[in-house]
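Try this one yourself first.
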């Protein structure tokens, strides 16, 4: 029980830091674990609790507010996160008895905020235990947006725009996908290990796995905490990467001896896969503008032992680059296609972010296009499902650059992942992977 209590307390403290910081959740985890004593054994549980509470936060708050006396939004932040933890365990953590979830939350409230907070928590969580929350989930096209936002744990503005672009049914599917624990895949580095040895490693690590049916280097894996800290990972035998990223990479058809320019390369999944497909021959010139992400990119290439990747810090909107016949722009974006993996992102985004991202994307593609050889190919990609960031940016670019045309991705990736214009376009609930967009632009 002491270990579980410790995991709960760490969970609340990390949730407090999330509320006070604008940092990405992975950075918050990294900083917290580096400066606080937590056993490696307890970290997967803590990480899961934090991510899943943030994932379901809208619905959790909706339930709490319906039973809370007073103004929940102005209540003490730590108390709110203790109540979120207790409510989450009652609603979603079937392996924990409700009475235990209440008792642990009350004890935590007493220790962190005194007897008054403990009494309030006890009364509210006991009400939640008795509440019939199954009725709350009824949804129809007539359901008001604010109610959909609460029940689906997504901001209302986000749901409203998705209904406009995706339709009501697909919006519900998408939100439900984002609210489930994500599917994880790894990419085997065939330069450092072989198929049989890698699969044996997975089996010996007691990891459930299945080979991906579309890209042979990729595997779906379950219960991955053991392999994250394995010597095989540290020695570059594999990387964590979604299959959709592999599909984007395949649009460029990287082959041995190629010279490829990757201008928004961090954290390095796509340029690493390119270098592996190129058998560590030729050159991948990988750049990122952010110093921390640039350092992360360098470290990743070092771990994978990919000395064909040349890493520098440069700005894709302004700096000069070597002229190449293959260029990847994995543009910074709102990230709405990866919210299942980045549970914090939906609460960090604001409507104004979309216009800001589109402006940056247009600047990047317009600037980088000048470094493409005649008859060369440029792949523009995002991990967004927003039309403005995808075809919106491409159509605007093509209108200003008549020497470029769209090249269909038919034959480079399975046709089931292509839209009617020949671009890669994945929809998570339909394809079982992150939502990405990528189009091949050829200089005529």
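Now uncover the answer:
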């Amino acid at each position: 029980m002491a270990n579980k209590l410790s995991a709960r307390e760490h969970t609340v403290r990390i949730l407090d830091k999330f509320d006070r910081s604008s940092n990405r959740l992975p950075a918050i985890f990294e900083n917290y674990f580096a400066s606080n004593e937590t056993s490696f054994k307890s970290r997967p549980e803590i990480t899961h609790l934090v991510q899943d509470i943030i994932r379901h936060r809208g619905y959790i708050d909706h339930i709490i507010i319906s039973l809370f006396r007073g103004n929940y939004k102005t209540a003490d932040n730590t108390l709110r996160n203790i109540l979120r933890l207790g409510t989450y365990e009652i609603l979603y953590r079937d392996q924990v008895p409700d009475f235990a979830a209440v008792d642990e939350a009350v004890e935590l409230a007493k220790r962190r905020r005194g007897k008054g907070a403990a009494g309030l928590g006890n009364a509210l969580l006991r009400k939640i235990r008795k509440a019939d929350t199954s009725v709350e989930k009824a949804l129809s096209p007539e359901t008001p947006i604010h109610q959909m936002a609460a029940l689906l744990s997504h901001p209302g503005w986000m749901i409203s725009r998705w209904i406009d672009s995706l339709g009501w049914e697909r919006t519900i599917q998408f939100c439900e996908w984002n609210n489930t624990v994500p599917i994880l895949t790894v990419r085997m580095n065939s330069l450092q290990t072989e198929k049989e040895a890698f699969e044996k490693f997975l089996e010996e690590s007691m990891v459930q796995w299945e080979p991906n049916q579309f890209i042979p280097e990729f595997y779906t894996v379950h219960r991955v905490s053991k392999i994250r800290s394995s010597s095989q990972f540290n020695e570059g035998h594999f990387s964590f990467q979604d299959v959709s990223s592999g599909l984007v990479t395949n649009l460029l058809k990287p082959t041995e001896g190629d010279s490829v320019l990757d201008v928004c390369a961090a954290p390095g999944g796509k340029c690493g896969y390119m270098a592996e497909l190129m058998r560590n021959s030729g050159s991948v010139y990988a750049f990122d503008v952010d110093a921390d992400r640039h350092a992360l990119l360098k470290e990743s290439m070092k771990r994978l032992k990919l000395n064909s990747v040349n890493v520098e810090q440069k700005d894709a909107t302004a700096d000069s680059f070597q002229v190449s016949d293959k260029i990847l722009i994995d543009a910074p974006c709102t990230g709405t296609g990866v919210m299942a993996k980045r549970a914090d992102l939906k609460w960090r985004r604001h409507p104004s972010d979309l216009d800001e991202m589109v402006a940056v994307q247009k600047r990047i593609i317009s600037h980088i296009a000048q470094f493409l050889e005649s008859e060369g190919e440029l792949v523009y990609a995002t991990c967004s499902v927003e039309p403005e960031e995808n075809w919106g940016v491409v159509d605007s670019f093509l209108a200003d650059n008549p020497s470029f045309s769209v090249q269909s991705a038919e034959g480079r990736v399975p046709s089931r992942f292509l839209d009617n214009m020949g671009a890669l376009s994945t929809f998570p609930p339909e394809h079982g992977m992150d939502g990405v967009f990528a189009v091949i632009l050829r200089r005529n």
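Discussion: Residues 1-5 have pLDDT under 50 and may be disordered. The longest strand covers residues 372-382.
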